[in-house]
Amino acid sequence: MLPEDLTEKECRVIGCLMEKSVVTPDQYPLTLNALTNACNQKSSRNPVMNLSQGDVQHTIRELDGKGLVRVEENFKRGVEKYTHRFCNTPFSELQLDSAEFSIITLMLLRGPQTPGELRAHSGRLHSFADNEAVGEALTSLLEREGGPVVVKLPRTPGRKDSEYMHLFSGEIDLDAYAVDKGEARVSAGTARTSMADLEQRVTDLENELAELKKLLGE
Questions:
Q1: Residues 14 and 78 in one domain
Q2: What is the pLDDT of residues 151-209, one digit of tens each?
Q3: 3-class SS at 89?
Q4: CA proximity to 110, closest of 51, 41, 35, 162
Q5: Are residues 13 and 51 in the same domain?
Q6: In this predicted model, what pLDDT tens digit does every residue of 153-163 receive, in sequence order?
Q7: Is the dihedral of CA 66, 109, 174, 193 positive or negative?
Q8: Are 35 and 66 within one domain?
Q9: Are 109 and 101 contacting, i.e. CB atoms less than 8 angstroms apart?
């Protein structure tokens, strides 16, 4: 069974383990300190988190109980290191090629993204020739024999392409998502309007003050 109940912290931990297994294989498996630093990176993460080592260790225990990570302990040094069992192992139902692995990793680390964003963010994980190549990998994840592991989200007004998101934290209410995105866009527009109104009021007050100074001077 594929996971369908991952929390935000669990997604971050698994995403970091997947990412580092490819981009820094010489430092993998990760120690608790390295994994915590990876979870709290200021770049390539959305949202940015500030997890303590205790938070990460607790999350690891939860994932270990689900069979999604492996804890390796060096009893001589007393140091634990962690690897993922999320995919591409004999213990996982999920087998991904390099392109699919890159997409899932990015979604776990950054949330919903368009094909263009996935290509731009793939970096050292995988080299996509173009957005069409990203689309082909997304299609294979959508039409997977065991069931889809990603979903195409309603296009946000003002954006050229739709975003895609993984389904490892449960089904996504597409209607509610569209409403939330629309409300966020309206809220942002209202904020910009309010700022414009405020700037105009300041300008009007400055003009009135200038007129008063002129009258007093006369």
A1: yes
A2: 999 998 888 899 999 999 999 998 888 676 655 544 545 555 566 667 667 766 776 77
A3: coil
A4: 41
A5: yes
A6: 999 888 889 99
A7: positive
A8: yes
A9: no
- Give the pair of three-digit tokens for residue 86: 């999320």
- Contact residues for 66 (Cβ-Cβ < 8 A; gap 6+): 3
As given in the structure block, the two tokens for residue 205 are 């007050």
Are 72 and 20 within one domain?
yes
For residue 197, give its domain range.
173-218
Interatomic CA distance for residues 86 and 63, integer angstroms:
9
Total residues found in the chain within this entry? 218
Give the Cα separation of 209 and 204 in Å (integer).
9
Q: pTM to 2 decimals?
A: 0.82
Closest among 142, 98, 145 to 122, alpha carbons compared: 98
Chain-centre distance for alpha carbon 50: 15
d(CA 164, CA 4): 16
The residue among 30, 54, 84 that closes a domain is 84
- The angle subtended at Cα 113 by Cα 193 and Cα 167, nearest 5°, is 120
